[in-house]
């Protein structure tokens, strides 16, 4: 039976949409007053100008300084052609993120065997939130709202994943979650984004590939499948909104990751507290002493596959559309299958595994060989 709290959490996502809004922050159409922190020098590129609302009908212009992009130096130091080089760098970044996410299935399986699943999930996201909390001081109030919204959507996606794994198979949960690759182009099409049409067909090919990869032997539908359907909806909303927020607030990758981590930690911890109770510090210490490998799994999932992957994802989505990102993310089950075979000893399967992998790779090549999007530097 589906936990009633899951339904309330799904409603929470709808309320957040209404409360925080899906659209980018709109500046007043006819500002009464426009102030400037300093006269911009001649020939300042338009992307170096920052426009911030001060009041309902007042905006302030300023020239972006190094502080706006200090945390992006590792990806900003690109040579030459940003419209081409940074696009391919962003694609490579997202494939690396997909590989990191692919390790999650094996890591979470280890965590569930060693400790209570909900408690481990709460500790994982609390670790991520604590590590990123200092970055929140750099985040303007308007950007904070966007980051919290993305985090709340992702948190509901994670919770539906946890609940589904208790009631259905991991393969079906992974396949249903991969439907975000179709959901995101639909959201972009509904919002009038031209890039959505080019991503829809590759997304459908990628979905077929994931189906072959994950669903070698189908089991009858159950209530867990219905719960799992919240994954593509809310993860898709999270990717879509993150793409908009990162383009609206360039140079704030780390603070946005902090806001997302905080929202996920609060929602997941509240869910764990309401269902099974939060683990106590003494309980965590005892579990770590009894099973030292637990600490490594928590650090890996809390920092590498949550914080580091979110930073890379946030930077890459400044360049790529969310629709293209989800097509690249469709390689996650392929990486998950490979890691499960190496780390956990699961079999690679038969012809369906090879056919599914081929379709996923074909979808990615199809998408990336289309006309590249006009890109800002990462």
Automatic annotation (TrEMBL):
Bilayer topology annotation: Multi-pass membrane protein
Subcellular location: Cell membrane
Top-level taxonomic group: Eukaryota
Transmembrane segments: 197-218, 224-242, 254-274, 294-314, 326-345, 351-370
Signal peptide as annotated in the record: 1-21
Keywords, sorted A to Z: Cell membrane, Membrane, Signal, Transmembrane, Transmembrane helix
Family annotation (InterPro entries): Diverse_Substrate_Transporter, EamA_dom
EamA domain ranges (all copies): 94-213, 223-365
Residue runs in coiled coils: none
Gene Ontology, cellular component aspect: plasma membrane
Name this protein carries in UniProt: EamA domain-containing protein
């Amino acid at each position: 039976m589906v936990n009633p709290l899951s339904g309330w959490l799904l409603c929470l996502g709808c309320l957040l949409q209404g409360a925080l809004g899906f659209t980018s922050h709109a500046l007043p159409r006819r500002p009464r007053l426009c102030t400037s922190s300093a006269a911009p020098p001649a020939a300042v590129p338009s992307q170096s100008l920052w426009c911030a609302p001060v009041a309902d009908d007042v905006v302030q212009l300023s020239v972006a300084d190094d502080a706006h992009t200090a945390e992006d130096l590792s990806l900003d130091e690109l040579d030459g052609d940003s419209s081409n080089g940074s696009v391919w760098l962003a694609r490579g970044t997202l494939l690396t993120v997909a590989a990191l996410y692919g390790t999650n299935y094996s890591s979470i399986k280890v965590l569930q065997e060693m400790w209570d699943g909900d408690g481990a999930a709460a500790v994982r996201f609390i670790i991520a939130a604590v590590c990123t909390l200092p970055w929140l001081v750099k985040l303007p109030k308007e950007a904070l709202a966007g980051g919290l919204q993305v985090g709340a959507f992702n948190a509901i996606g994670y919770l539906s994943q946890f609940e589904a794994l208790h009631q259905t198979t991991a393969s079906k949960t992974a396949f249903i979650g991969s439907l975000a690759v179709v959901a995101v182009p639909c959201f972009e099409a509904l919002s009038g984004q031209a890039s959505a049409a080019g991503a829809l067909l590759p997304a459908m090919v990628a979905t077929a590939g994931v189906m072959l990869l994950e669903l070698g032997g189908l089991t009858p539908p159950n209530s867990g499948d219905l719960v799992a359907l919240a994954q593509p909806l809310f993860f898709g909303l999270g990717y879509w909104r993150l793409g908009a927020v990162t383009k609206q607030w360039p140079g704030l990758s780390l603070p946005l990751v902090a806001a997302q981590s905080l929202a996920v930690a609060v929602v997941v911890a509240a869910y764990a507290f309401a269902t099974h109770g939060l683990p106590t510090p003494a309980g965590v210490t005892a579990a770590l002493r009894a099973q030292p490998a637990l600490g490594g799994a928590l650090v890996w999932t809390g920092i590498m596959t949550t914080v580091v992957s979110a930073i890379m994802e946030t930077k890459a989505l400044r360049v790529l559309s969310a629709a293209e990102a989800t097509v690249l993310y469709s390689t996650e089950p392929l990486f998950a299958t490979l890691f499960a075979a190496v780390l956990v000893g699961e079999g690679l399967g038969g012809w369906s595994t090879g056919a599914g992998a081929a379709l996923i790779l074909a979808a990615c090549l199809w998408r990336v060989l289309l006309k590249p999007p006009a890109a800002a530097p990462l």
